[in-house]
User: Fold this.
Amino acid sequence: MIPQWIIERKRDGHALSEEEIRFFINGFTLGEIPDYQMAAMAMAIYLKGMNPAEIAILTDTMMRSGDVIDTSAITKPKVDKHSTGGIGDKVSLILAPMVACCGVAIPMVSGRGLGITGGTLDKLEAVEGYRCDLSTEEFLRVVDACGCCITGQTGSLAPADKKLYALRDVTATVPSIALITASIMCKKMAEGIDSLVLDVKWGAGAFMKTVADARILANSMVSVGREMGKGVSALITDMNQPLGRCAGNALEIRETLQCLAGEPCDDLMEVTMALAERMLLLAKKAPDAPAARLMLQATLDSGEALAKFKEMMRLQGANVAMLDEPDRLPTAVLQKDFNALRGGFISGISADHIGRACLTMGAGRKRTDDTIDFAVGISNLAKIGDQVEPGQRLLTLHANDAFKLEDAEHLVAQAFTYADEPVARTPLVAEQMG
Ligand code: URA
Assistant:
């Protein structure tokens, strides 16, 4: 097969055969097809798209480019959750222990944030000693011992994706439904799960700006997962404002502990519950959503979910004393409230500006090799629809550098919009599939 002929066929809008897709991706992974041809192919896919059968083959080929974890020794149903991500999204940290308490195994391979705030692994690393570089054996041991484990992607999990993602990043080919679907699903399918729940975010702070676009991505991922023989559900959830009241790594660990301790966590817990319910239904642990919710609530009320989170963290090397006494978590030297500039109803909170403020203070990475300041970020964040008086606190900034704090203040000042009349809140779960 000749690579340029295959590129030409995709460029002209034809569906590629299984042989063509496997030849191209395997050749690229092995270094036999150079980056410039893969870049041209990625652009052809971006422009012409792929049909569901092509996307399923692309996903399968990328999954098989590395190890597929053998979880057959774990007898419990194995279910994971994937989110397309957004500011303040710490759902995995709360959901994994809750669902594990209900008899489901959650072998979760997670990522780091490259965007404006840290990813799941960065948040967990705010706790001293926590290891996300487990070998496959260690990973399976933790899942077997406590029901859940959150670790990082090893070099042998879907290497084709790692290579292709780096190329997409610099060739303006990231936002392709086919390529996003294959990239996300190949990693999840390599975890050896039975079922998957997808949280596809829509809104100003998400990759997908409209429900319609989020629906297209969700449909694509659901159909590929099912084609590959897995149970898949998807929720389309709101990311028009940050999720929860904190953004920043150690601050989000504190918020996680509060949620697991049963303290009111409004929108954050509502999204967590909705996703966790779908996981219990896919695992056939509950007959319907209300029954699933009761089971999940019981894990919070009994303190079991909080204990499970600590157990998972201990098994992954964390200093659990920091979780028993959250004051021992990294804490910023400077804390300053940002107050409402006028009275009225909050009509918008730009997740992008809040995220950029966090990044400015050091909560995320501008480059892949940047180090993160775990202590910094924001807390006490107001919510869209809140009625505020002039001068009322809208959030608290946490920084370790006065200049960065000032820059962050300018950014958060642009994050809020106000209305004179009450503002309706958009539903947190816009749609559900499966
Ligand atoms: N996350 C991924 O893992 N891959 C993409 O292409 C987009 C988001």
User: Anything to note?
Assistant: Residues 165, 174, 179-180, 183-184 surround uracil (CB under 6 Å). The longest helix spans residues 211-227. Residues 306 and 375 are 22 Å apart (CA to CA).
